[in-house]
Amino acid sequence: xxxxxxxxxxxxxxxxxxxxxxxxxxxxxxxxxxxxxxxxxxxxxxxxxxxxxxxxxxxxxxxxxxxxxxxxxxxxxxxxxxxxxxxxxxxxxxxxxxxxxxxxxxxxxxxxxxxxxxxxxxxxxxxxxxxxxxxxxxxxxxxxxxxxxxxxxxxxxxxxxxxxxxxxxxxxxxxxxxxxxxxxxxxxxxxxxxxxxxxxxxxxxxxxxxxxxxxxxxxxxxxxxxxxxxxxxxxxxxxxxxxxxxxxxxxxxxxxxxxxxxxxxxxxxxxxxxxxxxxxxxxxxxxxxxxxxxxxxxxxxxxxxxxxxxxxxxxxxxxxxxxxxxxxxxxxxxxxxxxxxxxxxxxxxxxxxxxxxxxx
Length: 360
Ligand code: ADP
Prior knowledge:
This protein is 40% helix and 25% strand. It has an eight-stranded mixed beta sheet with strand order 10-11-7-12-6-13-14-15, with helices on both faces. Helix 10 (288-295) links the parallel strand 14 (261-271) and strand 15. The longest helix is centred in the C-terminal third of the chain and has 33 residues, at 327-359. The two termini are 35 Å apart. The protein is built from twelve helices and 15 strands. It has helices at 3-10, 22-25, 49-66, 107-120, 137-140, 179-184, 187-200, 219-227, 241-256, 288-295, 308-316, 327-359; strands at 14-15, 20-21, 28-34, 37-45, 71-79, 92-100, 125-129, 149-152, 158-161, 163-165, 168-172, 206-212, 232-237, 261-271, 300-306. With 360 residues, the protein is α/β, with parallel strands linked by helices. The chain has two domains: 3-79, GMP Synthetase, Chain A, domain 3; 87-359, P-loop containing nucleotide triphosphate hydrolases (Rossmann fold, 3-Layer(aba) Sandwich).
């Protein structure tokens, strides 16, 4: 058994998010064979521990198929692509905006649960509530009434510290200003205020910062998406035509400013009566999210049902992915979060490819 033998066994293993083999991805950094002991060193784009575990299992299985008595150790290292030029955000690997064309479609609910689901997968996660018109993350995280701890650093700059709950660092405009105060400020002024605020927050090292944008496609959304270096955007909609018209505007806005649309999440897709679990009622119509995703050639990342527990979880400050009584809702949403991760990894893998081409 030589390292070349091992490489030929694991070269063809496919990274399922990227649909490419470890060989094609250049992910096999080194292989050491020491008697019956094998050490494989992988370089992988954005390995959450779930992704690392999946590749570990695939490699070990492939090696054991030919060498059943080998002992195998797999070391997964993260290959970096982070080149954030924004000094205040340089410690953040991925910035994912959650957006919607209009209010009330469940954007904040999705943003909160996406952040918690990513944290459950072992990622370091922050949530930035930029919904200046109606910051709801303090309530959704059970942090209503909290303020943000702030201090002056040695250079006299104000530094704010996010509040931590459910494994997510949360910063919200709701921790700094009252709802009615935000309503007095207007578009560009508010965006200016907000970007200053973003620069003052001490996030530390994060794998993901989920960015709950204000609904709509006006000046403030445009300014924020231009000023903050986003990895991509997830667009939330409900299935009916009136929401889809707004979602089209939202996708077009991101395309205009060259922000990758990672996909569409359809919320309030259907209702399952608790006493008739075999029935599905499409209250707001059917297929709208899939149609708009196809129209813009972006993935439909998933569908979330209408459920009273989702609403009550939001009001009571318990994101539904943590609801002990509804693991079904949590599991379905964790699959959606994994689809978001897949799109982020694809984005980063193609950014890394483009970078290699440029430096050649
Ligand atoms: P947005 O951020 O788009 O304005 P929110 O996330 O604040 O929307 O949701 C609006 C209201 O709808 C909240 O009361 C929330 O709890 C509720 N809601 C959101 N998604 C669902 C759902 N899938 N099922 C039931 N209620 C939901």
